[in-house]
Amino acid sequence: MFSRGNIVEKARILGLESRFDGLNEQQLCQPVQKISVIDLYAGIGYFVFSYLKMGVAKVWAWELNGWSIEGLRRGCEANKWGIKILKVNNEGTVDGIDDLVETLEDDNLRVVAFHGDNTFATSVMQGIKAKMEARNSWKPIRHANLGLLPSSKDAWGTATSLIDPEMGGWVHVHENVNVHEIHEKRAAIVAEFQRLQSKHKLIHGHASSEVECVHVEEVKTYAPGVMHCVFDLNIQHSQISTGRTQDTIT
């Protein structure tokens, strides 16, 4: 589970390495303490803890492996961050959602970890969002982390559906890429996320959106000729300006 590349990416989220957009009030158009993050491949908390350290209100963590969930729990407890673990069954239902909503206003509950398949994340999270919006306590999801190799493509549609439909946000796409095809992969990822956004808009009637890759982080060599890259996508809806800039492609 340990990887030097993970250290670099953790530091990037913390603002200590390279570039990482969307964790300051100017770009968010709201305080970082008022947002939440979803990590669809949370593991033992590789990146969850960096987001928490940066002050986000809550991280919604999805993880299939029970041992990783236990590691995440221990890490949260060691840092004195409250964590609630919920089991997702094979039909995609989660017991204890109503009780969870009652406790979510506790500021010390920083992580909600779902032990199960993230293909159910859209329906589960939308149900929670509706209940919390009724209580005026929902913190919009402004970042989605997709840290699965060799590809996180199975979760791209889920991430698209969960980024806040009014304010937009950032999706961090981890992929293994041929070192000679990084620019081509960048364009292909943007095109696919734009297609997913357009489809989501048609179904749900949300504001039109623009997808842009604002940065590509070359994390580490995964194998000869293969680079572990993180593609930082900004999904910006028509009424929001984040003051973003894009890396120059050379």
Topology readout:
Elements: H1 4-13, H2 25-28, E1 36-39, H3 48-53, E2 58-63, H4 66-78, E3 82-87, H5 97-103, E4 109-115, H6 121-134, E5 141-146, H7 156-162, E6 169-178, H8 182-204, E7 209-223, E8 226-237
Parallel strand pairs: 1-2, 1-5, 2-4, 3-4, 5-6
Antiparallel strand pairs: 6-8, 7-8
In short:
With 250 residues, the protein is of the alpha/beta class. Among the domains are: 50-139, no CATH class; 140-223.
Percentage of residues in helical conformation? 25-40%
Low-confidence stretches: none
Q: What amount of the residues lies in strands?
A: 25-35%
- Arithmetic mean pLDDT: 90
Largest sheet: 8 strands, mixed
So what's the overall shape? Answer: globular
| Overall number of strands | 8
Q: In angstroms, what separates the terminal alpha carbons?
A: 33 Å
Helix count equals: 8
Order of helices and strands: HHEHEHEHEHEHEHEE
As laid out across the biggest beta sheet, the strand order is 3-4-2-1-5-6-8-7
Q: What's the Cα radius of gyration?
A: 17 Å
